[in-house]
Amino acid sequence: MSKLEKLSPNQIQLMSKVGDEWINIAHSRKDLTIEEIRDDINWIYNKCGLKSPQIIIFDSFLAHKVGTWLITQSGLNSVWNSVWNSVWNSVGNSVWNSVGNSVENSVRNSVGNSVWNKKLEYIEHYYFSIWSYGWESFYDYFTQIGILNNQDFNQITKFSKKGIFGIVYYDKCCFVCKLPKKILKDDQGRLHSTKESAVQWRDGMNNYFIHGVCFDDDIWSNHGELWRKLIKRELPIKETLALKNIEQRHAAISLYGAEQIISETKAELVSKCNRGYDLYKIKDIEPHLLKYKCPSTGRIYTSFTPRSITDAKTAMAWKYNKTVEEWDQLRIES
Question: What's the structural domain count of the chain?
Answer without folding.
Answer: 3
